[in-house]
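> tool_call: predict_assembly(chains=two)
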Amino acid sequence: MTITAEAPAPVPVFDDETDRKLCIICSKGSLDMAYPGLVLANAALGEGIETHLFFTFWGFDMINKKRMDHLKFTPVGNPATHMPQMIMGLPGMTAFASHMMRKQIEDLAIPEVPEFLQMISDAGGHLWACRMSADMMHIDEEDLDEHVEGIISATDFMELSEGAQLLFI
Amino acid sequence: MTVATIGDRQVSVDAEGFMTNPDEWDEQLATSLAQQIGLTLEDGHWKAIRFAREDYAASGETPTLRRMATAGGVATKEMFALFPKKPAKKMSYVAGLPKPHGCV
């Protein structure tokens, strides 16, 4: 497209009326696996995309008030750390690795999990907890972060996610 | 990059219409840019725009929504109310800044 000096500038298409919808299933409770879902949900909301997060199994640690502040990263069994596994299994290594990762996240000005959930909620995102996981772990809504809208069944989630793009993390 | 007209001004823009030279921007131009995307600028918008401009001048980066909330004092909910649906992009457009590059 050639635009001359006299031509009006193009106006970006912000496409307010998108019907795009994204559902992210968060099934992991480790520090490193908590962030992909949170970051993508936040990005989706910033694009005006209807976004739902569904927390299941170990993903409950992300929304469990007692645990969400203490998620851990372990280098054991993770070849991507490029460190000798014999050493990674020594006592204290998980605490050390978690501390280092937390610091790296903080250095990038990325919020901790509870604040991230608040941010997603403020941006209009929806948080849901899995009924079966809640029953297995004897957890009810009082144990969960205040931004979780409800504990729902697998069938409820199927209805909720109709027509959505799905991500399983 | 192309020179094109916004309101009664000649400015440099990219293919989408975002201004590419922040120095060509002023508050009068912001009003024209806002009109193009259906916004009427009020006090809340100006607070956000002025902070974004200052922050860009200081850091060379357009602030993300997170930075707008933590450093700029404009809460995320407020940003969505002021610049509906795509707050970071719309604010950048009106403020004559590039879209934010940060993920969060």
